[in-house]
Amino acid sequence: MKVGTDGVLLGSWAFRNVENQSTGRVLDVGCGSGVISLMLAQRFPCWKIIGVDIMPEAIAESRLNFEKSLWGDRLTVIQKDFTRFRYDYPDSLYDSYDFIISNPPFFSNGDLSPDVSRRTARHEGTLNYISLLNEASELLPIGGRLAIISPADIREKIISEGLVKYLYPERICMVSTTAVKSPKRVMIEFVKGERNLKMKEDKLIIHSHNGGYTNQYVELVSDFYLYL
To answer: Who contacts 82 (Cβ-Cβ below 8 Å, separation ≥6)?
Structure first.
């Protein structure tokens, strides 16, 4: 639930085609410590953001971070299994979102844990990329956006499943730790129901040959660090 590179990357990269002064209702799935929600609240001053996580420890941590932030009045956190989210809040304020974003644990931790309780806590038992895309598609209106980060090797599976759910990729970013290494992560931003999108694909390299950060990475994330 701590601040990791995946969350910082996604919170910095997602929704770059959206006006900063736009209004919107946002769902951060698997919010953990709340870092992505906080980053979006900083970037978009008119957005109202709800974090959802299955782990009580995550809920307590993100709630504390939200309360101590400058944007606490626009941030909420709910303990809930995302696959049950829309069923548990029928005909309520929780039935539609303009934006959904997710860096869930099952993307960051590779293979399923053999320990059942640990697997449940990590949300791997019920929330996989298929269920995430399915639930997001149900909650998003036409033109709504979903941004995710995942291991690069399941990129095509995620895109294919997204198309089945009427989620069309508009932006893709392949992320490598260095220029000589293959991409380790992929960030994908889908738009629901927009079939004729002109997809833009970029590459991001985090570290230069001397071990420091690349100018590209610094430019992307610098608004969120005191020192970099």
So the answer is: 29, 30, 52, 54, 123, 127, 131, 132, 135
| CB-based contact 15:46 (threshold 8 Å) | no
CA-CA distance, 181 to 195, in Å (whole number)? 33
Euclidean distance between CA atoms 58 and 121, whole angstroms:
10
Could you give the angle at the alpha carbon of 134 between the alpha carbons of 136 and 16, nearest 5°? 35
Q: What does the pLDDT average to over 177-202?
A: 94
For 201, counting Cβ atoms within 10 Å of its Cβ (0-12 exposed, 13-18 middle, 19+ buried), the class is exposed
For residue 183, give the DSSP letter.
P
Residue type, 134: N
Would you call 11 helix, strand, or coil by DSSP? helix
- Are 29 and 52 in contact, with CB atoms under 8 Å apart? yes
Residue 139 tokens, joined: 């909650």
Sequence length of the chain is: 228
Which tens digits make up the pLDDT trace of 108-121? 444 444 444 344 44
